[in-house]
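User
New here, explain this?
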Amino acid sequence: MTGIPQRGRILVGLLALVIAPTVRATVPDTADHCIRRFLAQDDAQPRYRAIRRLEAENGSRRGWLEAVTEYAPGHGFHYQVIAEGGSGVIRDKILRGVLDGEQKAIAQGDTGRSSIAPDNYLFEPSGLDPDGLARVLLSPRRKDRVLVAGAMFLQPGDGALVRLQGRLAKSPSFWVKNVDIVRSYQRIEGSDLPVALESKADLRLFGPATLKMTYVYSEVGGRPVRP
């Protein structure tokens, strides 16, 4: 604090002592409010149409694909690959595998197992992050490969979900371990929808692998979405 007279530094210190307890008292209240707003929202998946780009890398192998994806209640999830390149193994075994897995989970009605809801998680307010988002720690109620041990970040006020990050509570298989994810969301037509996913994992015998997926929505809830 160079340039501030000694008396000024003392006043700044006293102000900090007075203000800090107030800040600490309001931060949990903000997080609690955000959790209540978030859980009060309708979490039903709306009808949508989006183009997704998926990219994966493992050692020297790299692959990508773009697909038109559609979801509608009662009709499920469908996709059509419109462009692709790179390693055929990556495209067929990993990237198509991601889309096929999502299609199967929705068809079997398993999406409720992964929803951010009290049936699946314990929620603990953890203050604000440097960007002013409410941080909420997530503790899975069971070891499940579709649940994440980590945190979610919510917009103060309306409780909109901005980001979910952490490690899968259970490895998907013996061959895949230490799966870390960061999933970003955006509120579109009143629904919090994923717009980006980044994942890192360790593959036994094959080393580190990464997966990235981005979403560009053209329709949500039967209404067109501006690019």
Q: What stands out?
A: The helical segments are 6-40, 88-107. The two ends are 46 Å apart (CA to CA). The chain has a mean pLDDT of 85. The longest helix spans residues 6-40.
